[in-house]
Specification:
single chain, about 400 residues, alpha/beta, Molybdenum Cofactor Biosythetic Enzyme, Chain A, Molybdopterin biosynthesis moea protein, domain 2, Molybdopterin biosynthesis moeA protein, domain 3, six-stranded mixed beta sheet, 7 helices, elongated
Amino acid sequence: MQQLLDLDTALALLLDRLEPPRTDSETVALHATRNRVTAVDVAAPVSLPPFTSSAMDGYAVRTADFSGDPPHPLDVQGASLAGAPAKQSLSPNSAVRIFTGAAVPEGADAIILQEDTYTETNRLFTTQTPAPGQHIRAIGNDVHEGELLIPRGEPLGPFQQAWLSACGIQELAVVPKLRVSIFATGDELVEPGRPLAYGQIYESNRHVLAELMFDLPVAIQDLGILPDDPDTLRTALGAAAQRSDVILTSGGVSVGDADHVKAVVESIGQLEFWKLALKPGKPIAYGSIGDAAFFGLPGNPVSTIVTFLLIVKPALQALSGMHPQPILRLAARLQSPIHHSAGRAEYQRGVLALHRDGATVTSTGDQGSNRLGSFRNANCLIEVPKTEGDLSPGASVQVLPFFGLLN
């Protein structure tokens, strides 16, 4: 009997055996890099800020002009605005009106806040004695020219894009999108919108898989629904392998008489068939057909979602050149009972709530692997270790928030 692998063990083996990420690249405009992965290290072409600037509204001064106790009288010598710097060096015993982000005039070494000043008889008086460097941003305060901005393999989001834009970068070399082919198998499956015959159900797994990959750097090819026929499966999988980096299927990987995917993949490629100590999602297949990685997920919708989030998504991230992060787990106090038989780790859908004194979580009810309704209102998975039996309210559990799994 094949040993059931724990999730962490299976994931570590998978990431170790995946082909290295692609080393080629394509150059795209910065505005098109959201959720793409950097193909090279990106160094700052300029320093930010590129000039010494003020961090506050106030007056640029020379600290050498201050002695004794305040107030200190100063002559106002013009102004320095953002984009319109002062045109001359600061004279002794003088101040330049300055605004946040404006260039500090030559000779000034501190900024006095405007609220720490007052005017009287056309002169400026300060109520504070400034320290050198006060409220001044040095050149390179954010990043120095030549410093690493973004390392290779980092996914790009709004914050990274903003930093790149601030450095004047208009385009970037990124890893090409993974070509992912998805299809579902099963004679009982019908496309939504068509009439159902007795014994048939509407297919939903392809749609949810595509949506779960929405923020990944992938190009999806939807191959539709395939029948439980070995020859048809063999032809479709072989063709998909020619034009895909990854093939992702749902259904047909269990041990039923109509589950042909495993045998077909073994006949035209290589397969490591994992039966995970996982509920839902015990049957899951990983292997390769030609140069394409293959993932066969269970057909039950909840099992498809859970195995994708816990197994396939980290693999796609790795194949895209990213460095998959450990799964985020938070401690929470259980609010509802959970019935569980020891032997397999279970991931129930739950509602996580945060309070001042900690977090609580409540199961969404019937956890059948066919019940997409168990995701209604859910915002996390509740992790029940394989060694645990039934859990009572008040028990401490680990939860996997969807904001860590989906983003």
